[in-house]
Every structure is written in C-alpha cells, then in structure tokens.
Specification:
The protein is an alpha/beta fold. It folds into 2 domains: 195 residues, 3-Layer(aba) Sandwich (Rossmann fold), CATH 3.40.50.2000; 159 residues, Glycogen Phosphorylase B (Rossmann fold). 41% of the residues lie in helices and 18% in strands. The radius of gyration is 21 Å and the shape is globular. GO terms for molecular function: glycosyltransferase activity. InterPro entries: Glyco_trans_1 (IPR001296), Glyco_trans_4-like_N (IPR028098). It holds the Pfam family Glycos_transf_1.
Amino acid sequence: MILLNVLSLTNEFEEESFGGAGTAATGMLYMLDRLGVQQTVIVPRSDWDVPGWVLRGQQINVLGLPRNSYYFGYLGMIKADVVLQEFPELSQEWDLIHSHAINFTSLAYTLSGGIIPILYSVYSFLREELGDRPEPELQAQFIIQEELLMRCQHIQLISQSEKNYLAGRFPQYLSKTEVLPIGISWPSERWQPGNENEFLYVGRLIDYKGVEDLIQAMSLMRQSGRQVQLNIVGKGADYYETYLRKLVQSKKLGALVKFHGWIPSSEVRRWMGCASGLVVPSRREAYGLVALEGMAIGTPLIASRAGGLVDLVSRDCALTFEAGNVTQLAQTLITAYNNPSLLRSLAEKGREQALAYEWGQLAPKYLPILEQMRQG
C-alpha cells in the first residue's frame, strides 16, 4: 500500500554526502521508505557523466544528474527547463514536494504550480550560519532561501534554537513551522578506549565550528602540564586549513595535533569508537549530529552549549562549556583528562539518551506531518 507519493529534492543523498545534511536526508528518506512512502529523489552526482535512474530501498526511485553546467547553473541552481524537457515524467500530481536544499527551488515552484504543497526541511539558516557576509553570491543564496521560506506550505526546523532564530527574523512563518529533530541510524560500533588521552574532532573546518578555539585550548592545556593528542578529521577551505596548521605550528603543537582530512563515515565511527573523548567546540550550531553520533557509539563527549547542541547534550551526559570561551574549554579538557571515570559514566547516559533519536523512534513524528500536508 502506497501511503504517499513524494518528490524529494536534495543536494546530498547516500554516497553523494558531504556532511550532516547528507546524512540526515539519507536517513530520513530511508525511514519514510520503511513506512511505505513512495519517493522519487533527484540528486546531483559528482562522479556521473550521464543522468540515470536507480532503485534504492523498497521504493525509492533516484534520478542522479551529473553535477555539471548543463543541469546546474549560477549558484549551483538546477535548470528546471532542461530537466523537465529530458524527464517529462516528473510532471505529475505528487502528494507533496519535499525540498532539502535551495538548489532546486525553481524546479519545486514549477512542479508545484501553486497547488502541490512544498515541505522545506531547513538544516541551517544560511544568513545566520555564514554571518550575513556581503559577497553577492552569498546574498543571492540568502534571498533564495528566504523566498522559499515564504512560498513553501510547511517548514521543518531541526532544533529549538533554529525556531528562535525564525521567530526573531520571520515570525510570520511560525504558524507553518514544526520542530522535528533529525535522527541517526543506530551504529554497530561500541566505544572501547584505545590510546589514553587522545581526543577527536570531527567536522568541517570552518570558523564557527570552533576548531581554532580547540587548538588554543590545547595550548593552554599543555602550559598546565597536561599533554594530550588531538586528531582533527574533516576538510575546509584551503586558506582556512592553512591558517589552522600555521596556528598549530606557532603554538608548538605539531607533535600533538594531527590533521587527517576527510575520511569515510565507517572510518569516522571507528575513530569515535576508540577516542578518549569527542570534542564538539562549535561557536554556533544548528543541531549537532556529530555529537549525537558519538553519543550513540558511547564515546565520551565534551561539547559547547551552542544552538542546537543544547537540545541534544546536557550536563547529565557530557562535559559542557560556554561556546567561544577558550579558557573554559581548556578547563573542561583538563577535567576530562583528570577524571576519565567521570567521562565514562556520562557517556553511558549519553548513549541511552541518543536512542531516542534513532530514525525508527522518530518515525511516528514525521508521518502525521506529511499526511496532514496532503490533506491540505
């Protein structure tokens, strides 16, 4: 029995995933698939030369489009006329259109025709995330996202902090907004400490993620006579990664801080499974999926109290500190260094808390929203 027939538009799905948004979209689509929702997914493919259809899960039809200038234009926006000319079967009476990214706004508007409802899952507010930077390309993306907020019929936000931002900037949209957390697929890995005093950072290398704060805190920690290893897993813009590496050298931390670049998700979970602690030092955070994944594995967690992390991480399951406060971060790392048994006991509670965010547990919260949208 087909409960709903949904067109999903996402910039990331399965192997074409670069971060939390891709992980979330993939998990959400498979969760809905298990509930009997029929989905057609359109996603760019970086390693494809020609477009094609593949079947995933029980009834997920995936249209992969080469990530090139024929299908995607200025700002990476999809060329709706080109796609609809090649794939006229997309013009049908969908129950709803589910947008996970702004790249597909023109296609969503065209297929909706003002009749088929659009659900927009917002993984971050770009103007907030990027600090309202003045570059014309960024300002254009901000405007596209904010127009989509206006024109869609329903908005899914992933944390209370994101709702607070919406309330302050666009309170007129609150009546069509729902806070629904994103989930995780329950990992098979379990935390088993490997090398002692070896902390881990996982995520993009971008200023608001707090990696610079973490390096500064490592320097303070070393000055106090405690030495720990820090492994940094993730990539960022070349200029910023170069800046971070120079900061490590200037603080004489080259033997203690190691950059490992991007690694596959399975390897990330393995690293989490043997780290003494996972550090999430974000200055701003829409959600905190890395923290949640670490909690599910049972990895001891040290996290800032920034944005969406507050929804996920409490003092009952992690050591926390004020976002952006380097001195407090250093003191928290020292506490972790001095009290490994405390970290372990907190991690056990964290794993119990993370279970509530397994996709199967979240499913009953999602389906009523989709059915309500179909009914109008």
